[in-house]
Amino acid sequence: MSRTIPGFVTLAIVAAVLGATASIAAEVVDARGEVIKADNPSRILSIGGDTTEIVYALGFGSNVVAVDTSSQFPPEVLAKKKVGYMRALSTEGVLSTGATLILANAHAGPPEVIRALATSSVPLVMLPENASPESLIEKVKLVGRALGAEAKANDLAAQLNGQFGSLETVRSKIERPVRALLVLSVDGGRALAAGRGTTADLMLELAGATNAAADLNGYKPVSDEALIEMAPQAIVAVRRAPEEEIAADIAALPGFKALGAGRKVPIITMDAAYLLGFGPRAPRAAGELMAQLYPDLPNQVAR
Amino acid sequence: MIRAEAVTYAVGNRSLLSRVDLDLQAGRLIAVIGPNGAGKSTLLRLLTGELKPTGGRILIDGQDLATLSADQLARRRAVVSQHTALAFPFTALEVVLLGILVPGFEADCSGTRRIARDMLARLGMEHLADRTYTTLSGGERQRVHMARALCQLACGRVPAEKTAILVDEPTSSLDIGHQLLVLDELTRQKNAGRAVLAVLHDLNLASTYADEMLLLADGAVLARGSPAEVMTDERLSMAFGCDVRTNCVPRNGAPYLLPQSCTAVAT
Amino acid sequence: MTIESLDLPAVEDGIDRHGLGRRLILAGLLALGLAAVASVSVGPTGLSLFSLPRAISAALSGSDAAADVHARLVLLEVRLPRTILAAFVGASLAVAGAMMQGLFRNPLADPGLIGVSSGAALAAVATIALGGGFAGPWVRALGIWALPVSAFLGGFLTTMVLMLIARKHGTTAIATLLLAGIALAAIAGALTGLIAYVTDDRELRDLTLWSMGSLAGASWQKVMAIAPFALILFVTIPRFVRALNGMLLGEAEAFYLGIEVERAKFWIVVLTAAAVGAAVAVAGTIGFVGIVVPHLVRLTAGPDHRIVLPGSALLGAVLVVVADIAARMIVAPAELPIGIVMAVIGAPVFLHLVIRRGGGLAAP
């Protein structure tokens, strides 16, 4: 009990201060089609790396009281309280953050906890899946409405739309798409490759590449032989931490050594949260990947 | 009490016991003797109802054994097997109390604990009642199981003349003093009216205690009758495939033997 | 010598372990009560039991004031079902473990060991993975019981297959059964892996989390899902006490003592499969409860199933309720999988059991 009293006091003060400044949107229809009454963004629990990045991009970073473990950017977020892995939330753990607004990635779970939270007095806004550039725009606008910052969200959405547009322009100049394989990790001598229906697949498409693992559904480990069969012309290695040496691990795979028929297959290393987070940095990440895949193309993606 | 009529038991096409007749009467002790693999334990397991004969039938007081339920059987006969493994740390007394598992036994028999202690005492085990079973020696364990079987029948409240005790080599791990103690107790049970059937390895003990003997060899009855009738040099030598001589002790005239040599005389 | 010499006066003597056991069971009830109160009182939100009247009145009046809703949700919709679920799961797993150990006459036996848990898990995983597909009608027809019933069927079928494999001449060979169980557990594990492989990434991650066990998703629905299985198990405990005690001496001996062994074995297998299946379905796989709890009960009160079964039910419930408090508090507001907490508590006890007495207590 004693622990929470100061919590509620701070909450009240913060709410009073912010209540005056924030423009309040009363009702939001979230990705599930639920009508959510979101009128107090003073204490935000943000679940999902993309969600958190959008909240920060809209200038509400200081209102964030807690995040999940996939929220790694911007760096300030690392100091926030953690409610654990987004697929394994606990109802009471989430409620104990004292949040007045919960914004959650489509993957947040388990479903029982989401159902229980939906019956709480705290508004829970679920964001749409990552299916296309439009879903990112939709996420930004939805978060903007929930935060009562629609104007800012529209600006960000317009900016993102512009970036996607210029990506498309550059992409149209590609004559021969590169067959690329995106590798998430190397475990026990097998690469974990991204197949169809993944955010990675979407990012490869945005970067103008053909997914060499399009026959796979989801993230699947592939053998050396399957790696040779896929015949990627480039490999995109995704690392979760800067010190991870995934490129070296891939280079050491016998299957990799047999690739390219004498020509070196490039390994492009990128940060996981940056490339696959599908937050506001997504078009830039796609542009950067495109630039590395097609060094000869003029890179016009706005930075 | 228990009658076996032309009982045959076969596994696949291998016959373990063929056409064995047996009449175990109240107040009698039958010793089943014979070489290893003769079918003694198989016969005992058939008589308990654990194995179903593949031919012939077994009757308990005129009722077919196969028609009786496990608890009806448990009230009428107790069994002590050759080997009973128990990996859990019961005390000796608790093992004896396991003899009264059939529902209703406790209601009929309020002094169960006292009976259990008395049965242990009869087998010279009263001082070990509270010892953990797993720490007892082989001979002590054998006597605990004997006490358990006695406790089972004592609590069954069926008149002694309608009950039987079937024991498989009850003396195999015992010293001479305890062998006599166990067989004396079986005799006491017999005298109280129970039918007793014991598979015995020690021919001299069998000869001393049995009212009747059944000599099995190769799954068939080679001889039956009083010890004097069964324990002849010729029959035993033939059954065991070695040369033996029987003789008589002066006291009650029961024959005894001293092994001579392992040279087979007949097989 | 007359018949009288075999009959003795009816006198009860001394204090026995059964008396001690009765006191232990009272102590267990008390401990369960305390653990349950603690579990409802403790949580990351810091609401205590003192908010209970408010929660109840909020539930009755349907008040939607934020503080009322908060108290009702946390106490009545989160902590209370979670506590009850933990108690059911712990008791079911512990009793199933004790029954299996009696059935196989081996104190190291566990539903996990002979493939019951693996079979249950496979069926549950298949139901989750295929629930949207051709298993859809099955899932819709059974509602909240789809998962526990599937898990029960999986555990039951595994056990029946095992018994068929191990059956010879009308009796069950324990050694064959244990070895075949290990093989079947491996097959079920492989099939579970295969299903995880063909499903998409999100379900795959759910399966991984689920295999570590968690009570975070506790709800009244889940309590309702496990309740019939658990209650049937508890109510039928007295019916199997004698059979299990007799079977400790061996199946033949149990028959000599008046137990219908094959019938008892069949029902013990059905009940344990049901209890394990339901527990696996609502809380994932939580290990060690089935081994550690009966062991501790035997250590204090002896191996008599009259004490071991109810004692295991109580201690199992207490242990899982307490482990769940730890699971939700240690890294609050995040949550540890309870399977991990139980492994931390259970593995050392199990090792101790193996080192101290494993050799001597192996299957006969």
Write up this protein:
The complex is a heterotrimer of chains A (303), B (267) and C (364). In chain A, helix 6 (150-172) packs parallel to helix 12 (282-293). Chain A has 12 helices and 13 strands. Chain A is globular, with a radius of gyration of 21 Å. Chain A has helices spanning 4-21, 49-57, 91-96, 111-118, 133-147, 150-172, 199-206, 224-230, 246-251, 254-257, 272-276, 282-293; strands at 27-29, 35-37, 44-47, 64-67, 81-82, 101-104, 124-126, 179-187, 190-194, 210-211, 219-222, 234-239, 267-271. Helices cover 34% and strands 27% of the residues of chain B. Chain B is globular. Chain B starts with a strand and ends in a 6-residue tail after the last strand. Chain C is mostly helical. In chain C, 74% of the residues lie in helices and 1% in strands. Chain C contains 14 helices and 2 strands; from the N terminus they run ααααααββαααααααα. Chain C has a two-stranded antiparallel ribbon with strand order 1-2. In chain C, helix 2 packs across helix 3, helix 6 runs antiparallel to helix 11 (261-283) and helix 9 (220-247) packs antiparallel against helix 13 (305-329). Chain C is globular. Chain C starts with 16 loop residues before the first helix and ends in a 6-residue tail after the last helix. Chains B and C meet through helix 2, strand 6, helix 5, helix 6 and helix 7 of B and helix 9 and helix 10 of C.
Largest sheet of chain C: 2 strands, antiparallel
**Low-confidence segments of chain A, ≥5 residues, pLDDT <50?**
1-5, 15-23
Calculate the terminal CA-CA distance of chain C, rounded to whole Å.
39 Å
Cα Rg of chain C: 22 Å
For the biggest β-sheet of chain C, the strand order reads 1-2
Overall geometry of chain C: globular
Could you describe the largest sheet of chain A, including whether it forms a barrel? 6 strands, mixed
The percent range for strand residues of chain C is under 5%
Counting helices, strands and paired strands, the structural category of chain A is: alpha/beta
Low-confidence stretches of chain C: 1-15, 358-364
